[in-house]
Amino acid sequence: MDAVTDLHHHGDAELAPGLVDLAVNVRAGAPPAWLRAELHAAVDASAAYPDPAPARAAVAAAHGRCPDEVLLTAGAAETFVLVARALRPRLAAVVHPSFTEPEAALRAAGHPVTRVVLQARDGWRLQPSAVPEEADLVVLGNPTNPTSVLHRAADVAALARPGRVLVVDEAFADTVPGEPESLAARRDLPGLVVVRSLTKTWGLAGLRVGYALGHAPLMARLAAQQPHWPVSTPALAALVACTTQSARAEAGDAAHLLDHWREALVERLPSSVTVEGRPRSSFVLLRVPDGTRVRAELRERGWAVRRGDTFPGLTGDHLRVAVREPAVSRAFAAALTDVLHPVPTSSEEIA
Predict the structure, then answer these.
(1) Do residues 284 and 291 lie in contact, with contact meaning Cβ atoms separated by under 8 Å?
(2) pTM for the full model?
(3) What are the tens digits of pLDDT across the range 279-332?
(4) Integer Cα distance of 263 and 112 in angstroms
(5) 27 three-class SS
(6) What separation in angstroms does the CA of 238 have from each of 31, 184, 203, 216?
(7) CATH label, 33-245, candidates 3.40.718.10, 1.10.10.10, 3.40.190.10, 3.40.640.10
(8) Which of 95, 127, 219, 304 is most solvent-facing, going by the fewest CB within 10 Å?
């Protein structure tokens, strides 16, 4: 029996007024002004029912696919619910540590689920041989939340086979410059479903906008589980706007900048902190001694970080920290150093 964890706990639960948000791994400062203008215009056009055709065509063109291979969704997380409703797996394998909503959706639908837990000693990297052969549904993230590890495309593709649906959560793919390990354009892999989101790079968590890519019959099967007009007019406008060549170039620039910001964070962390794996996305996974106490004391000092123990395979000593601009990272690293290595007061030295 898999250990019971709170699969519905997410970073936003860590937030409170007055706290610096390092718990939610959404790009700071987004959406940009030009995108907000597009959204305002879309609100003015919202008297009519949504027309998904332009957005579907735009997403398809961006990934070199046909429009019928695109499923537009109310946030990437909706895809996991649609998969759980549309499919009847004999055994679903979810690769952990990872975003927990896929497993939550599968369990809620009554499907048998096994966890494939990656290991710190392997750098939290995917080992394809660890996935049971009998699993006819496999779910994993790339890059993976919360480890920030980017798996090799060849290793992920090795999990695809006839009779199996392979769901790859690429919600953070555009945070990696060039998206080198993305499978979004692969049309040759049987049963592949790639899940994408506008949430992270464009700061649109509240808009709920994402999409899935895969073979047309499978996309139609998932779409049959949706209500009419599942994606709003503003969300459709965001899909069109964020898949233009100029927007994709801006996202690429943001990913390159993120690399530098992440380095600035990592290099300032105290030596008693372990950076897990090789982080490649907009967050890092840290292991600290007495993590529950550290997280509480950071909170008292005004910092919200994401607890790690609600991710299967992690412990209370794990903290996920969002990458922010260097000035914020310097301040956070100083606060973390003070918590881990407090300087004794004069009275404590005398005692």
Answers:
(1) no
(2) 0.95
(3) 999 999 999 999 999 999 999 999 999 999 999 999 999 999 999 999 999 999
(4) 40
(5) coil
(6) 10, 19, 11, 23
(7) 3.40.640.10
(8) 127
